[in-house]
Amino acid sequence: MSGEVVITSAVRTPIGKYCGSLREVPAHELGALVLKEAARRSGLEPGLIEDVVMGQSYQNGESVNLARMSLLAAGWPVEIPGVTLDRRCLSGLDAVCFAAMEIMSGCAEVVAAGGVESMSRAELYVPGEFVKWGLGGLSDPKWGFMPKGHGALPMWGIPFFDRIQRARVMSQPVDRFGELNSMMTWAEAAAREEGISREAADCWALRSHERAVAATREGRFAEETVAVSLPPKKGEAGLFAQDETPRADVSLARLAKLPAVYAGGICTAGNSSTENDGAAAVVLMSTEKAARLGLEPLGRLLGFAVAAADPRLTYPAVPAAVNKALARAGLTLADMDLIEVQEAFAAQLLADAKLMGLGQERMEEKLNVNGSGISLGHPIAATGVMRLTTLLHEMRRRGSRYGLEAICGGGGQGIAAVVAR
Asked: Of 89, 97, 267, 393, which residue is the catalytic one?
């Protein structure tokens, strides 16, 4: 990679349960909060930031171009542009990589990047092809004249989709790959292809919760999070300051009692990631700019890559992306001191670790040391930046030199990034 890029700050919100504590907080407010905090921690005036790149997988009519909306909601100068990306679960880390490419290409010196997801507020919608030609052409007492193809229509008898669930089906063409009615279908494929047992998946799920609970108890997440102010209730505003998702009451016995979602499968609600809300952001700049500003980088971005596989499998895209990113960084997996591989499902995580050649000892020592998606949750487009934030802070805490992050995503894609301190 030409033109070294450094990360001068990384921050995330605590992670909220689906329809939990953050359900009343609009996505752009979460975005504004982490952007402001990332700039503050970098010691930057927002006017020095030349662009904002953010990921969001569930954009809708209430959340349009979240990057621009968030920076404006943060009170930043109106001259700062913003763009929002969607590569499904990869989106947040992809936003960081796109921001880095702006700097590497000489198009900018300082860029903020992040990811936001409010799955609790993801919309329910009516596909336009069912109603567009029946709308409009009338004047509304509140909104005025509605052109043809716009307006409102009673929805009885019209398909009404949950955007979250429908997106899982529509992340790949049904006529080519069949209907994958959940991401879990390819986790089950990973289990079959790589020989992952139910017991192994449950053991990893337990480990994930134990690691996240320990990290919370020991205050390891405190320095990387910024609390979210909640709407007032009974006259008093609340403060959301700790991840809502890790569970201290998880046991192998409890996990073993959960039914598999698919007959004959191994994936359950207990060894799979959850739907969540949250946001994270980083500030990136050239090494020269950081030096001129007198800033000490939190980390350096050494290499990154995306890869793809058959959407019915997906998990092979992770080791493919990892191999490309490591090659670009001129390093090997053995060089990595800490590794974050997103736990969409325990079956997928274990299959990826097998393909990457991670033995049990190295997994125990280096992989997801503070938990991951099964325990911390998976606010889709925010996850990549959240895991990067945790990775960078843990590397600083341990004095680690190299770190690796990788994520798989809907539609059969994978992304990886290598960072250094």
From this structure: 89
